[in-house]
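We emphasize that the prediction below concerns an isolated chain of 753 residues; any contacts that depend on oligomerization or on bound cofactors are therefore not represented. The input was used exactly as deposited, without trimming of termini.
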Amino acid sequence: MLWWPLIVPILGVSAVPAPQSSPATGQTSAACAQISRAVRSQLAPQSSGSLAFDCLGSVPNRPQPAVKLVESLKAFVQWQSTLAFLKNPPQSYMLPPVDIQGSLDNISATATAGGFSSEYDFQVKILQTLFAAHDGHFLFVPDVFKVFTFSNSLAEGIVSVSSNGSSLPKLYHYSTLLSVRTAPVAITKINGLDATSFLTSLGSAFSLAQDADAEWNMLFPIYSNPAGGNPLAFFPLFLGPNLTLTYENGTTQTQQTVATLKPGVDFSNIASGDDFYDTFCNPDTTTGTPAASSTGLIQTKPGLKRRSPTLADYPPPVVQNSDEGTTMGFFVDGTGFEDVAVLAISSFAEETDPLYLPKFQDAVQSFLSQSRAAEKQRLVIDLTSNGGGSVLAGFELFAQLFPGVDSFNANDMRLTESLANISRILAAQPIQDQKTDVAASSLLSNLSPIDLSDPQGDKFNTTDEILTPVTLQGDQFTAYIRQPTVPGFTLTGTGDRYNPPPALFKPENIVLLTDGTCGSTCTIFSYLMIFQANVTTVSVGGRPQVGPMQSVGGVEGSQVLTFSEISNISATAISLVSDQAEAKQLLAGELGVLAEGYAVQRAADPVSSPGSINFRNAFAPSDSKTPLQFLYEPANCRFFYTPQMINTPELVWKYAVNATWTDPARFCVQGSRVQANATKILDPAFQAKKDGAGAGNGTDGGSGTEDGNGGAQTKGPEDDNDKPKSSAQGRFQSGNMQAVWLFVAVLVTIVYL
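Result of the prediction step, given as a token string:
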């Protein structure tokens, strides 16, 4: 079972979604020892969920390291691009405001006062705070979650399906839908509460998605995400000792929650909560503790897809990029669908394949070539469950679909003290070293004028031009920038690929099919299609209610950075400062806290999931003031899954065709049809400069207006990833951090003398 991006508070058996403190330490002191004895006796590494929860409740919260953890976390959170908008969101944002830094301050104050009954309660508060941002790039999972996973088999395989695709769906066990002997019975209550309200409340309060319908879809298995992500079935937090389901016919079922030790966790010598803390929560003593395994809290890097599709569910493809099949092309069979081609992209990345990008490029090119030969005229692009990947892949797909159309992109970064310091230290290095560092780091490539342009395509000449603040929502940001160029891959329309075949599919003959979970690179590609090509969107699934649904409900930022990359580059930056007084001053400030990286050391998985932030905001061509994360963009139509669609994607594609071109009034959910995308005028802040005018530097961004294109006339982007690059090269990189840390250690001594 894979990670589902939902963090919830502790729930009682039949409680509403509200936090519940762990039991008093005196009541739970023997729980860890009891589990330890079971492990030593070679029993299965599984116990009742309540016993494991009692063990967690006995782990003490130690104020000094707790405050240090929050201090370190706050330094990394400064780089989160959306803080000001989260605190005071625009009306278009569908979720409540949250003051992330203020909440962390309150957590620190509570810890200082001894207000947490356990380390578990303390770390749950941290999780709740970060997840209130509803940002799939913004994540930190602390170390108390290294040990247990809670599961309940009764919640496995629950799906949300409609009888015909337009009537409201109900909840069922998928296995009962397959039975030919008995009629399936819907689930109506969970732990005594209305099932729909229960699950909706969990999602709307504590999900990484920023749309309620996307949160709903993330709960359930589907052909493009066969594992699903119901936290009642598998979760790192304790949701209650039992799960009780009530059915439409009045019957009930109850199943006990169990706790399982994660693979590689040695619990044999844990006799108390103090032992637990010293073994798993103390960075001075946890160096030998295995990192979280693939069954842990976070299983892939942020911004990437969280599963592979079950290829057996798909018809034979005409094109497939790899054995994993994240990109596949199909021709639809059946009367009325003879001219339909489908491009199914479940991810814009494959972490295990270093040749993903050229394979993706070749697969798309081959698919379009075969579609042309087969005289296909209509195209469905299936983006269900697509959580992102390589940003360049999104631009490449758009470039092949619409050759010659410039891909608009505008981004900015929160202008923190540490970001400005790193930028200026980089600028002071010899030019060749700068080029090496910029080519090797997805962080530094955004901070150097080397090969960096504004949205109009004009090159920056100095670091100060990049750092000249743009004020938005009372906060300061860098100048607007284009996607940084990265060598090694030739985008269609550039270089030796400057003359691609003409567009095969007209915009009006293309539909984007999403389930709202589209995020990161999927967002970037989708908005290129929506804003620049006026392509129609159709969404599937969502909450059991009528009305519209957003096509894009995942994170809409344009780059994720891990805490590790920020920490490594901060440490290296300090080591490159030759003036000892300046180095000492930097070490004593925010940059020094980042360089120490205490939060990374306290992560549940410091190697694979050390924590991350959304580094860059992305903007629509018509609005330079509001990041895409905070805009509302409904799909043009919506329908629900039927039971047959769960593992038969071709039925979903055919329904999308009918809902788009055959009879939208019949096939779309009542009230879900939204007028085709209105064309919009390019925001003045993104228009070509005239008479030396800037692109909004030093002021608020321009206001949005409406027009006929929505794209900037700029050069096509090259590449960057919305996943962090390897930082193994360059003087700013972490390949030889021992020497750097020796230098930093000396400076630490100087600071505290």
